[in-house]
Every structure is written in structure tokens, then in C-alpha cells.
Amino acid sequence: MASVFQILLRAHIGAGAVALLLFWIPAIAPKGGKVHIRAGLFYAVCMLIVVLTALTMSGLTFAAPLTIRGIAPPPTPAGLALFLRNQRIFATFLGYLGALTLAAGWQGISAIQTKQEPRKMRTPFTLALNALIILGGFVVLFLGIRYGRGPLIGMSPIGPLIGVGNLKYLLRGPQSRMHWWYAHLSSMLATGIAGYTAFIVIGGAHLFPSLARTQFFTIFWVLPSLVGVPAIFATVAYYRRKFHESGHGGNLPQAQTTL
Known about the structure:
The chain is mainly alpha-helical. The chain has eleven helices and no strands.
């Protein structure tokens, strides 16, 4: 199982690295053009690999943390209990982040595929996924407070905000003429923020290992959102003005923008 975990980890890192590079092509390319569509498709595939490997690794880590690490158990019962607890908290958090990215990406792709009939997005899978990340946010908040984990506390509001925003769009239906474009834009940009959050966290841990062991490392988790969220609002506002829909009557830009 340890070798399977390593294969998943390599696939996760490789697909994530490619996705981070591809992200900028559809973001910059003329919207609706061939470059935008093709690069966006490759980006979506890479992010799907990232999400699926993250969820699988999360499940394996939660179920068999010792086996997937290929290590002997700690010599004392207290040490073993601490190791298992820490690994399962990490597994829960990893699964939560994977589900957040999946919810945002699924919403973004589905919105543009069903723009003429948005009610087709209202499936048991999408409703359950968004309900799950709402619940996951409260679970992560509890774990963060209970065990003093700053990153968990900092990221805990994301699930409820994304989930509630997505569910409003799914259940209330479109509130503006270009609803599908705003949903697609904000959701796909949100997946990029998620990807760069992981990149900055991993890079920061390697560059500043002593800081990574303190609560101050939480800034690495929230920095992409602090930069990305205003950027999403500004971008959506730009297109609202371009489409002469600025002001009222839309889902600006939904809770996806908070990731």
C-alpha cells in the first residue's frame, strides 16, 4: 500500500504542477476562443487528477496511516495515539480541500455546459457534494479549535461559503442574463486559488521549515485567498460592466469567490 500511495502522490504533484502552469492560458487567452477552450479542458483534466488523488490519499491515510507511510508504530501507546490522531486530522483536512476544489470546478464546468438549461445542474451529486463541504467546514473548524490548528480554522469558512453559494445558484436558478459566465469564471478562478494555496504552502514549508511548525504559518494558507478573492470580484465586476449588468440582478460572484 505504501508504494500505491507514493504513485498517487507523484501523480498528484505532477498533475498539480501542470495545472498551475496551464491555469494562466485560459485566464489570459481571449474568452471562448480555441486556445481558451483547449487549454481550459487540459487544465480541468489535470485538476480532476489532483482532486481524485487527493481524495484517495485522504482515505488511505485515514484508514491505514502506518501502512501507507511504511513505518513501524511508535513504541508507546501514547505515541501511537498521537501519531494516529495527527495523521487522521491531516487526512480529514486533505479530503476537505479536495472536496472544495471539486465542488468549485464541477460548478464552473457545469455552468458553461448547461447555460441554456441551468436546472440540469441540480442533480443528487451536486446537491450532496455542496452539502458535504458545508458540513466539512464545521468539522474542520471543530478540529482546528480542539487541537489548535490555525490552518484548519482559517480554511474552515470556505466550505460553507462555497456550498451555500453553489446551492443558491442551483436552487434559485439564474438571476441575470449572463449568469452562466459569472458562475464559470468565479468557480474556475477559485480552483486556481486552491492550486496555488497548496503550492505556496508546500514551498513555504520547504523554505521556512521552522516557521512551518508555528501558528504563523497560517498566513501561507490564507494568502492566496487574500489576493485571489478581490481579483475575482474585480474580474466579475469588469464583465458585468461589459455586459451592461452591473449593479443588480445577479449572483455576484457567488461564494466560490472565497476559496
